[in-house]
Amino acid sequence: MTRTIFIYGLVLALAVFLLKTLEYRFLFRQLSAEIYIGIIGVLFTILGVWMGQKITRKKKVFVTPQAGEFRLNEKILSETGISKRQHEVLELMAKGLTNQEIADKLFVSLNTVKTHTANLFVKLDAKRRTQAIQRAKELQLIP
Amino acid sequence: MTRTIFIYGLVLALAVFLLKTLEYRFLFRQLSAEIYIGIIGVLFTILGVWMGQKITRKKKVFVTPQAGEFRLNEKILSETGISKRQHEVLELMAKGLTNQEIADKLFVSLNTVKTHTANLFVKLDAKRRTQAIQRAKELQLIP
DNA sequence: CTTCAAATCATCCTTTCGGGTGAGTGCTTT
DNA sequence: AAAGCACTCACCCGAAAGGATGATTTGAAG
User: Fold this and answer.
1) DSSP code of A64?
2) pTM exceeding 0.85
3) Domain end: A14, A39, A63, which one?
4) How far: A113 CA to D14 C1' (Å)?
5) Enclosing domain of residue A82
6) How far apart are CA A92 and CA A108, in angstroms?
7) Which of A30, A32, A89, A139 could bridge to A116 as Cys pair (CB 3.0-4.6 Å)?
8) Does residue A9 sit at the B interface (CB-CB below 8 Å)?
9) Nearest CA in chain B to A9
10) CA–CA separation, A14 vs B108, rounded Å?
């Protein structure tokens, strides 16, 4: 953003200087003022279009984080107090695995998984696993 | 798009005319050419930004359908043979509601919802509701 | 009018979830 | 050393989910 504005200012200054220099040499007597203004207008319109895209494109990158690749929101992760192990369980849960399948995959007992899920539900303020998944996606804790 | 270009042309012509008229009356002797050009530049830059946004905004609507808003994939919906009612149930299921809550919301019995979910699982090739939700999202049947 | 699919509801039975509670181990922080 | 936390596991119990099957109604298509 800052660089975009800087470049804009640079081009603006350059254009003013350039046109001013040319004005008294070749163009002023050969071209009418209307055409002169028109050229400037078109030039800066193009510049404006370019600038506008730069600015809005960067905005869209920040506003829509779920578009494209997933990036874990570690801030919220620490805020909710979800541990690594719990996050693992959460991911497998979201894939549609049962507690037993999760237990097998993580080489722990079913009861352990149930404890993890129970703690997850509290931290995610959910009553069911489907709700927990929904919440976790909103909070960008899972893809 | 066409209207945007039309408006642009209109404003361009208007500006040229306006500035040309003013030029020989008040400004030309009072303001230096640099400032004069600068004003034109800034004006048309703003115009360019506005135009660029108009154009790219319309492009984004057509080019990136899944980024941002959700658009149902009706092709897959018909391929899987999921009915309207089943799709309703699917959406509520994905929100984390229990079968009983879905039944209350749709004014049908719990058994009816269970039948719908059972049929959904077959059509989505899922064994559990969490799996069904996962599959449905992949197939763009739900947001 | 018949056929068919969708939607509705039911009953029976099994599996999975989730809540509550207690407890042992190991690592880090104080 | 003691406290705190994450991780582990266990048992009990009720709620929710899921499987299988049969039945009725209704609207659309043939």
Assistant:
1) -
2) no
3) A63
4) 19
5) 74-138
6) 14
7) A89
8) no
9) B42
10) 72
- Taking the C1' atom of C8, which residue's CA lies nearest? B112
Q: How many domains does chain B have?
A: 2
pLDDT digits (tens, 9 = 90+) for A56-68: 544 434 344 445 6
Pick the closest to residue B122 from B140, B104, B108, B135 (CA basis): B135
**Can you give the CATH number for the domain in which A103 is found?**
1.10.10.10
Q: With b meaning 16 or more CB within 10 Å and e meaning fewer, what string describes B92-124?
A: bbbbbbbbebbbeeeeeeeebbeebbebbbebb
* Spatial CB neighbours of B29, under 8 Å, sequence gap ≥ 6: none
The pLDDT tens digits of the residues spanning A51-98 come to: 655 555 444 343 444 456 778 888 888 999 999 999 999 999 999 999
In the 79-118 stretch of chain B, whose C-beta falls under 7 Å of nucleic acid strand D? Answer: 98-100, 114-115, 117-118
Q: What is the pLDDT of residue B58?
A: 43
Name the DSSP class of A1: -
CB of A117 closer than 8 Å to CB of A99: yes
Q: What is the pLDDT of residues B98-114, one digit of tens each?
A: 999 999 999 999 999 99
> pLDDT tens-digit profile of B23-42?
555 555 455 555 565 565 56
Contact (CB, 8 A) for B140 and B65 = no
Query: Is A14 or A110 the better-scoring residue by pLDDT?
Result: A110
What mean pLDDT is predicted for residues B67-71? 70
